[in-house]
Amino acid sequence: MTSTFLGNLSLDFLKLLENNDEYNVIIEIGEGSFKKLFRAHSIILCYRCPYLYNKLKDIDYNDRNIKVIKKPKVLVKVFDIVIRNSTLERYYEQIYGTKSSNFFYNLAGSKTFKYSITF
């Protein structure tokens, strides 16, 4: 019963991320023609990722009541994986959904990942 609940909750968080409903954070990843905007929710980001918790505390809301984080040197493909999965310090649990611990662990060991995810 618990695993069903948690599985459904993870799917609900993933839907929330994909539908862009009620977001209050925009994370701008990449630059130029490789830039992508990720719309997210501070309440989820802050309590699933210590880095984003500290980062968001230091950013004021804009006139649309949205906090904007800009990371031009991060690759969109890499961040897409990160936003859907938590950091290694959170025991590979997801920020918004999708359990892909082994894939994420393997990716984290790659040189491409190490150089691309530097915040």
What does this structure look like?
This protein has 119 residues and is an alpha+beta fold. It has a single domain, classed as 2-Layer Sandwich (Potassium Channel Kv1.1, Chain A). Helix content is 47%, strand content 13%. Strands 2-1-3 form a three-stranded mixed beta sheet. Helix 2 packs across helix 3. The radius of gyration is 14 Å and the shape is globular. The relative contact order is 0.17. The C terminus is likely disordered.
CATH topology: Potassium Channel Kv1.1, Chain A
Q: CATH homologous superfamily name? A: Potassium Channel Kv1.1, Chain A
The order of strands across the largest sheet is: 2-1-3
The value of Rg in angstroms is 14 Å
Which band does the percent of strand residues land in?
Answer: 5-15%
Q: Compute the average pLDDT.
A: 75
What structural class do helix, strand and pairing data support?
alpha+beta
- CATH level 1 class label: Alpha Beta
Report how far the terminal alpha carbons are from each other: 38 Å
CATH architecture field: 2-Layer Sandwich
Number of domains: 1
Number of strands: 3
Q: Number of helical segments?
A: 6
Give the fraction of residues assigned to helices: 40-55%
Described by strand count, sense and barrel closure, the largest sheet is: 3 strands, mixed
Short characterization:
This is 9728_t:CDS:1. This protein is α+β, with helices and mostly antiparallel strands and 119 residues long.
Descriptive labels:
alpha+beta; disordered C terminus; three-stranded mixed sheet; Potassium Channel Kv1.1, Chain A; 119 residues
